[in-house]
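Hi, here's the filled form for the chain we discussed.

Project: internal
Contact: R.S.
Residues: 494
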Amino acid sequence: MQNAMHTDWERCVRAVQSKDARFDGWFFTAVVTTRIYCRPSCPVVPPKPENMTFYPSAAACQQAGFRACKRCRPDTSPGSPEWNQRADLVARAMRLIADGIVDREGVPGLATRLGYSTRQVERQLLAELGAGPLALARAQRAQTARLLIETTPLPMAEIAFAAGFSSIRTFNDTVREVFALSPSELRTRVPASRGAQGTPGVLALRLPFRAPLNPDNLFGHLAATAVPGMEEWRDGAYRRTLRLPYGHGIVSLTPEPDHIACRLTLSDLRDLPVAISRCRRMLDLDADPVAVDEQLRTDPVLAPLVDKAPGRRVPRTVDEAEFAIRAVLGQQVSTAAARTHAARLVTAHGEQIDDAEGGLTHLFPSPEALAALDPQSLAMPRTRRTTFTTLVTQLADGTLHLGVESDWTETRARLLSLPGFGPWTVDVIAMRALGDPDAFLPTDLGIRRAAQELGLPSTPAALTARASGWAPWRAYAVQYLWATDSHPINFLPV
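And the returned structure, exactly as it came back:
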């Protein structure tokens, strides 16, 4: 699939006529006669091809004067996989916009984080997405508002400010323009079975994904490495605490056949879009599993593994700095030992929070809190202590920044320059924190064991050369190779 798929008119028409859900989020169909825009899989009778026009984003549709379809709800489709598989300016900008930077810091803040001028950022987004950063952020605010209107009993004024609108009037005007309904009309259209209900203060959401999705290694990995006090597996759900821009939260994520059930408790509702974005990113829900698996199946060694359990995702993180710290704690020790080290830090230095269900007690400590520790108090070998203290100091003072906008190549080089950071640590951070879909772990013990069992080269250099044909999806190949082992990370907990 190409970056500018919306320009391939014939391909888009075929996708719409076949109602192919795989293309939801890749492009949007605008119907010139009705002035409505839809996702490709919209269940209504497809319009005549001559009445279709295609856009790369919901924001571009809205800017062109189209309103969202009430049947297929295109604003709730999975995000484009492009933004998580690319590391260029536009992809990094889109990840930041999803993380709420424009609402918190404005377009100048977005440009500063990317290291470009405001004009360059606006020009590139407009060229590729048909909308600038303000329009893209506005579309996201509209989606958040709709979510709150339909799933909570909150007053409209509270929803307006929680969704990021500066005034009630702007909120009302935007909702009417995007959905062709007033906020009150949106709420009355929600069936009683889907409306606001359940525990007060808890938001119940459905996170969509592109099928297939194999939850085994995804939730298995998160559950097997869960740090007591801040993560747990309970009643078929992965639960964890979240450190967010305006406060904190607790999320519960349950795999269902056609969606991920998400229950969020937030100390500040303004964090809703950020929390959703980070959970989607952690579960790799915007991936295109068909494209990934098709590429990996071209290797006769990987093909049986893919056919056996297609749709594996890369388990990622909600906090890049947290993951880097945990990667250092996990150097050359077992999964259980890494959990123990992390749990001690969480209990001693994490911020305490209340959990109505009682299982979670703390947020993971901030880099600033960890940088203030007495290094001698850390129960780890001296060389790893140096690695740990160097990392948290650089994260705390801003010398090193890990975020959704990080340049993968530049950040790898920065990490490799730190004491105690070898290829395995850098690559696992690139794969699970930075989100590089082509990160590979040829020195990982589990990968080398799988390679030997499958008849692949077992030395790192030879295996890396053999894996070149798996690009640009080597991080997904890692998941399939890991899955040949009986380690708990590969199995959905019972």
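Let me know if anything looks off before we file it.
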